[in-house]
Amino acid sequence: MSFNEGIPRVWDVKPFEQLFAEPTRNGLTRPKRVRGDGIKMVNMGEIFAYDRIFKQDMDRVPVSEKEYDKYILKKGDLLFARQSLTLKGAGKCSIVMTDEEMTFESHLIRARLQKEIADPMFYYYLFKSKIGKELISLIVEQVAAAGIRGSDLVKLKVPVPVILEQRKISEVFSKIDDKIELNNAINKNLEEMAQALFKRWFVDFEFPNENGEPYKSSGGEFEESELGLIPKGWRVRPLIEILEVNPKRTLKKGVNAPYVEMKSITNYYARVTEQYNREFKSGTKFMNGDVLLARITPCLENGKTAYVDFLEENQVGWGSTEYIILRSHQGIPHLFAYFLARSDEFRLYAINNMTGTSGRQRVPEASVSSYPVAIPDTFELFRKFGNTVHPGFELMKKNDLETHSLNLIRDTLLPKLMSGEIRVDQA
Asked: What are the Type I restriction modification DNA specificity domain coordinates in residue numbering (predicted)?
């Protein structure tokens, strides 16, 4: 691909290798049996999960003194995926954003740039852009899996604006991504705090007593039940007495309605990551305030659960037949159903009650309905829980909407700034 047409005349075009501080290098091979201790290793999993590598959890591996200087990563290093099961994944680029001690695996290619002439962030964003992806596509080889070779990567001709302009361009996108990551971190903390509160109040029984003190730690009375000791006055009842299971919803066949795929539900976050309109044929139906619980293996074991809050008032959405829909009864906050379904105790119960052939096991609706729940003697505790966690979820929704807008802005600007169609002083 040539950049000689369509880019500013003041931009140079050079083989990528002319920007390197040292030759590219493939990483280390470390089988599972030696992993556990040592320094962090960036694997293919991290490359496809994270565009920017910070201090995420990852495998640790031993690295010898002889290997250390060659294979240690530095802040600003670019990592390219040598292989992928899909064409679009081959050559995927991530950037190291930390000075934390890390190495990288053999399926990755490291490129280390001369920072006085090549801003690593600029080239990271270049390879995220349409231009960069088209460049990578020129060197992808498809055999059993799609892949690239370092010897081809280094010969790619890339645009080289002056370093000051590179830095200005990358700064635009870095600020957007920093805000997106801040929003994601805030949302993660908000959900973790709400989950911890649910466990403290409804599992550990440290809810506030009449004096505002933790019930169990303050000597609150307990009595025996089928679940063991529970606060005096509480009772154990089947889940169906406090939650609806697969409540009836009306949606006519052929109507376009918001659709949620299984891949749009995560094992760590309440909100659906993506939904789109699709003609309804058959599937589960849901409304705002409902909870989507994946009932099939391995999605159930992985913890795929979501809280629906993206629909219009009284609008009905739909999704896979492999969801079980939960909804709190009147007087119980909708979010209680979500955190109950997210709890370790419920998850273990559901897994232990799966039926069916190996690889296609599901938890039956009847088993979910029969799950034993310790219920407070009054609904006041439910009300307090809802009032406490609801504002955090409203903030999560607001942050996600802002993140969506920021993603659109970044993705609109990226090809224009990377091609020089818009100069940085015009952006």
From this structure: 64-192
